[in-house]
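Record Bifunctional folate synthesis protein, 276 aa.
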Amino acid sequence: MTQTVYDQIKIQDLEVFANHGVFPEENTLGQKFLISAVLYTDTRKAGQSDDLKASIHYGEVSAFINRYLKSHTFKLLERAAEALAEELLLHTPGLEKVCLEIKKPWAPIGLPLKTVSVKIQRGWHTAYIALGSNLGDREQYIKDAVKALDTVRGCSVEKVSSLIETPPYGVTDQADFLNGCLKLQTLLTPGELLTELHRIEQAAGRERVIRWGPRTLDLDIIFYDDLVWENDDLCIPHVEMHKRLFVLEPLCEIAPYKRHPVYGKTVWEMKEEIYE
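=>
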């Protein structure tokens, strides 16, 4: 799921009678909702083979939407849309992105209106995570972290590099590190992913006492799609990654032609520049 796909399968105004709303009577009496979904997928194989199994079955997706919204109750359309989009992405093979709109024709606001709706777009993202440890059983800490990340809802580890031993960076009076990188498919936003990485670090006993100091586990977001973004807690791409051989070497093993969205250079090119 790394290439951009523009093929679409559309479901327009599917009628579902369900029990969503802020008011108690909406949860008990129920009302009509109209659901529209744009399913982003690659239809090339189905278009060539004429085989339904090679595509997304819109009838099955429609039945899933109907069943899911009938069997759950949400107060907000925002929550209904978010939960439904996540379930569709997790359980529909070949679905890379979904644009979902839930309309509420009978919104109880005491004024005439045709409909109110919430429309969202959600999809899979590709992230690259750097792995490091220089305390205790370094290899086991990293293996446990990979396994823990792969079990996070909305995360799937696709590739893991081999581990290399490297001298410490920044604070040099400490033990050598084991370093590696992994490729991750995720539904999480960058901030949500960072929170999960911190949780996994803390479970491994990570203590943030000295910057660049010894640690049981270090997990950093290197790339997230081609996003260029920063706030007080996170910078993507990682601000120092192009200078760090202990990141570039394992990353080059699994993504040599991944291009830096700011510098325009591939991982392989950035690694070779350090060797020059």
